[in-house]
Specification:
191 residues, alpha+beta, 29% helix, 10% strand, elongated
């Protein structure tokens, strides 16, 4: 069978696509047997681009194996690096690494006038209700408005006996001093 020839650009693209792959066929000390050739053929049919690991130390023997595999199975030699061979055969069912002819999809951008919706809410089909957009009644507008709204009660200040948030504090703690609350304690060190 004829050996498949690749251009330098195709070879470079296939080499980069094969970078994350792990070897799927290992050639042991017995060398290139019929069973190994059959396994390489099956892997090339399924994946199209594979890595093969050769166990031998002889470089010339690895080159001869590579040439025999390419001639027998009509595949292309993409790269030979150390004990790893990268092989490619066109027409496999799984060709995710080949260039896609379809138009690349552009990322969707939100228009400035559209409200922001987090991804999890958008996936659920929900959106954030913005409570800040309600118009606030200011000044004498409350007296003129048609709908009677109850007046807000002023917030009660925290008493000295009960600290804020029900967190007990010592009288001389750093938190009370940092907040500017200095009681009638006498400063130490002053005469």
């Amino acid at each position: 069978m004829p050996t498949l020839e690749l251009t330098s650009k195709e070879r470079s693209a296939l080499r980069s696509a094969a970078h994350p792959l792990k070897p799927v066929v290992l050639i042991g000390d017995n060398g290139l047997t019929e069973a190994v050739l059959k396994e390489i053929d099956i892997s090339l049919t399924v994946h199209g681009l594979i890595k093969v690991r050769v166990a031998g130390d002889d470089r010339q023997a690895r080159i001869d194996m590579l040439n025999q595999i390419c001639d027998t199975l009509s595949c292309a030699n993409v790269h030979h690096l150390g004990k790893t061979l990268i092989l490619y055969r066109h027409g496999s069912a799984n060709r995710a690494f080949e260039e896609n002819e379809a138009e690349p999809q552009q990322a969707s951008y939100r228009k400035p006038s559209e409200p922001y919706t987090p991804k999890k809410l958008a996936a659920a089909g929900k959106s954030i209700k913005d409570k800040r957009r309600k118009t606030a009644i200011k000044g004498n507008d409350a007296l003129v408005s048609d709908s009677p709204k109850p007046a807000r009660k002023p917030l009660a200040k925290a008493s000295a006996s009960r600290p804020a948030h029900n967190i007990p504090r010592r009288a001389g703690s750093a938190l009370s001093l940092r907040a500017g609350r200095r009681s009638s304690t006498v400063r130490r060190g002053s005469r």
